[in-house]
Specification:
37% helix, 3 helices, alpha+beta, three-stranded antiparallel β-sheet
């Protein structure tokens, strides 16, 4: 159950910043139980270690049977294993308690909360709580006809065109104006979309003022 939202919607958040607090009472109870089991296992290990050290000289002097000595060693190894398992259970229980505080995985601008306080979120399947967007630099996905891409490739190979060291793209907004910051062309995809016959290109554009928003449609002129 979501107990509290601890961020302001629409603001900038930093990586690691707490966003939601989930009810952790069951996880803390499990942690207390795991700690008690660890303490019990460590007490058993201390007893088994003491018995091992007490029986070691007796075994060397053949004052106890070989069977008793083997049983003592086995009990010590079992106590070591029980302690290791108990420590692992404590580690897992601590992780579950930590998971009850949901941190921001990245820095960026966070949108509205998609769950309310009191909502039930599931561990078994992913529950979208909120979306964080990094908008200082954006990717622009461009489609180009595979025929045009092939024609350009042949023109380069024939020496009719020269490839610039860094190809740029210029964004045209809905009102027809050109976005002030040029985009840098990163790559062209290796495969053609069989449903459209298009090849996807990707460019990266600076967005220092936040004028461009994720999901925005633009037209692109590529050098």
């Amino acid at each position: 159950v979501v107990k509290k939202r601890v961020f302001d919607e629409g603001t900038l958040v930093k990586q690691g910043q707490s966003l939601f607090q989930i009810d952790d009472s069951a996880y803390r109870a499990a942690l207390d139980s795991a700690l008690a089991t660890q303490a019990k296992a460590e007490a058993g290990l201390a007893q088994a270690s003491a018995l091992l050290e007490r029986n070691r000289p007796l075994a060397e002097a053949r004052a106890i049977s070989q069977q008793d000595w083997v049983a003592t060693q086995a009990a010590h190894k079992q106590a070591l294993a029980d302690t290791a398992a108990a420590k692992a259970a404590v580690t897992q229980a601590r992780l579950n308690v930590d998971y009850a505080t949901v941190p921001a995985p990245i820095s960026g601008r966070i949108g509205r909360a998609l769950v309310t306080e009191g909502a039930l979120v599931s561990q078994a399947e992913a529950t979208l709580l909120a979306t964080i967007q990094q908008t200082d630099r954006l990717y622009v996905n461009i489609t180009q006809s595979a025929t045009d891409a092939l024609r350009l490739k042949r023109a380069f190979e024939a020496g009719k065109l020269q490839s610039a060291p860094t190809a740029q793209a210029h964004l045209l907004l809905d009102d027809g104006t050109e976005y002030a910051q040029p985009a840098k062309l990163l790559f062209s995809d290796l495969s053609v979309d069989p449903t459209s016959g298009q090849v996807t290109l990707r460019a990266e554009v600076p967005n220092p003022k936040g004028e461009l928003l994720p999901g925005l449609y633009v037209r692109v002129k590529v050098d």
